[in-house]
Amino acid sequence: MFTLASFFRQRCIQVFAIATFTVAAFGTAHADPIIVSGSATLGNGAFFGPTINFNISGQNFQAFNIEDPGGPDHFGHFGISPCSRSVAPLNGGPCTSANLGYSGNGSELDGMFTVNGQTFVSDVINTLNFQITSPTFVIPPELLNEPSLLITAPFIFTGVAGGACCQAVDLAGQGTVTLLLTRQTVGGFTGLFLDNVHYVFGETVPGVTFQTEVPEPATMVLLLSGLAGTVVRLGGRTLHRVPLDHGGQRRHFGGNYAVGLGVFLTMVASVAGAAQQQSCRRGNYRAGFQYSNLEEVSMFREYA
């Protein structure tokens, strides 16, 4: 017997079945992941904790100026939060250990993205899901009092992007991340705090390395070599103005002196460069990061 109640019951069952099919298709029918390129930058947020901005793209996908602005409910997304200016003082002091991972999705990421020619605003319906995995680092005690520290590490990126109308696409990538810590005084603590982080998609490095902010050996050699050349030129010009005695012997002596000084400065530069390279080799600590695919991540540590 046909009744109004049975009609509505039948219609609800049909709608529920369609909705269930749509969600299942959206959640599972993914093709091979899109390999993305580009970069992301991270820094201290204006509110609380860090903030990050993505500019990445791949085949039939673009996401430019996508931002997680941070905040009290977002700082847990960032592995580097213990080193940020707002969180570190509450965590007991300056940065000593952290990681460069990140996790954000849905309305936590602000901006617009394009999939297969269609543009969406990121929200709880038209969603982005970005995950960055990177090894945890521990700063060697002998480097904690440095004025600045540059930390380099590999990272793996995975993600999902899709609109309510369309099939979602998987995203994948990898690259190298560089973290700059600088010596600051925050909340009564003086030490190393977050300055900025730069993720570059593409080539990766084999593990975590620490580098103090000092001139490169090549730069020192060029600087002192240039100084030596200047001394030689100025020495030659000055000695031409000095009256010659004993058949020009004074000019000959002065010229040899200037040349000898130039050679000496060049040798000092070379020795300084070699000493610096040896020091860097002794001070580099590596926390290795190896993977055979995006699902397998293993960790190892060694002293170089």
Q: What attributes characterize this protein structure?
A:
28% helix; 3 domains; twelve-stranded mixed beta sheet; single chain; alpha+beta; two-stranded antiparallel ribbon; 304 residues
**Mean pLDDT across all amino acids:** 74
* Backbone CA Rg: 30 Å
- Poorly predicted runs are 7-29, 236-242, 250-255, 274-283, 285-304
For the largest beta-sheet, the strand count, sense and barrel status come to: 12 strands, mixed
Strand content: 35-45%
Multimeric organization: single chain
Order of helices and strands: HEEEEEEEEEEEEEEHHEE
Envelope shape: globular
- Please work out how many helical segments DSSP would assign: 3
Fraction of residues in helices?
Answer: 25-40%
What structural category characterises the helix and strand content? alpha+beta
Overall number of domains: 3
- How far the N terminus sits from the C terminus, by CA atoms, comes to 83 Å
- Strand runs, count: 16
In short:
This protein is α+β, with helices and mostly antiparallel strands and 304 residues long. The protein is built from three helices and 16 strands. Helix 2 (217-241) packs antiparallel against helix 3.
Write the topology of this structure.
Layout: H1 4-28, E1 34-35, E2 37-44, E3 50-58, E4 61-68, E5 97-99, E6 102-105, E7 110-115, E8 118-121, E9 127-133, E10 136-138, E11 148-162, E12 169-186, E13 189-201, E14 209-212, H2 217-241, H3 249-283, E15 285-293, E16 296-303
Parallel strand pairs: 1-12
Antiparallel strand pairs: 2-3, 2-13, 3-4, 4-7, 5-10, 6-9, 7-8, 9-11, 11-12, 11-14, 12-13, 15-16
